[in-house]
Amino acid sequence: MKKDKESISKLSEFYKVFGDTTRLHILYTLLQKEMCVGDLSKLLNISQSAISHQLKILRLYSLVRYEKKGQCVFYSITDEHVKKILEDGFLHMSEL
Amino acid sequence: MKKDKESISKLSEFYKVFGDTTRLHILYTLLQKEMCVGDLSKLLNISQSAISHQLKILRLYSLVRYEKKGQCVFYSITDEHVKKILEDGFLHMSEL
DNA sequence: CCTTTCTATGAATAATTGTTCATATATTCA
DNA sequence: TGAATATATGAACAATTATTCATAGAAAGG
Predict the structure, then answer these.
(1) Would you call B83 an interface residue with chain A, using a CB distance cutoff of 8 Å?
(2) pTM of the predicted model, to two decimals?
(3) Which residues of B touch A83 (CB under 8 A)?
(4) Is A94 near chain B, with CB under 8 Å?
(5) Staple partner for A76: which of A13, A34, A54, A96, CB 3.0–4.6 Å?
(6) Phi–psi pair at B34, nearest 5 degrees
(7) CA–CA separation, A35 and A12 (whole Å)
């Protein structure tokens, strides 16, 4: 695995995505079940706009996917690999 | 594993530490061999002060340890667990 | 249609974080 | 002891990132 400037920069971006409480809250909530934007907003007590902006970033990094059902847009964790990353996070931390 | 506000906040802090190119560069450099502040500064072409400030954060999170030898302070990765986290990072990313 | 509801988004603002600059402390060596 | 070298650190400044605010678009229901 190369550890040049380029890939270290990529890796730091990757970590940065997880390094925000709003995004982590969204991710761990979606780990339980898929949810639409408004529900996330109410549940986490964060404005709809803020949620939407952060979901955009999570989408950009392919951490969540979405499906439109009527007026609602349901978001969910992309796949098992992302779920694993999320579960590993707590393990790593608790070992430090 | 509890996923309350408190622990999600802790976890995001943990990720945040890795979410900076300077700190990652330092960490991956120290993964090769222990090094003193000045050498890191020269090698990475980052001011001594910036390196020192970032090392302080890495120390705070127990990711590095240091040993004073004369005027120099040699830094190294704390332990195998931290090394594992660093190596896992690239794997996770490459699978996304 | 018109209104309501849900979501997305650009721009402005607020908050956070990183770097630089100036300087202090400690150690070595002449 | 005095000068040089290595590191740390507080404060100011710069840069980045998140949130809010205002608003637009899309779908559903009356």
Answers:
(1) no
(2) 0.92
(3) none
(4) yes
(5) A34
(6) -65, 155
(7) 28
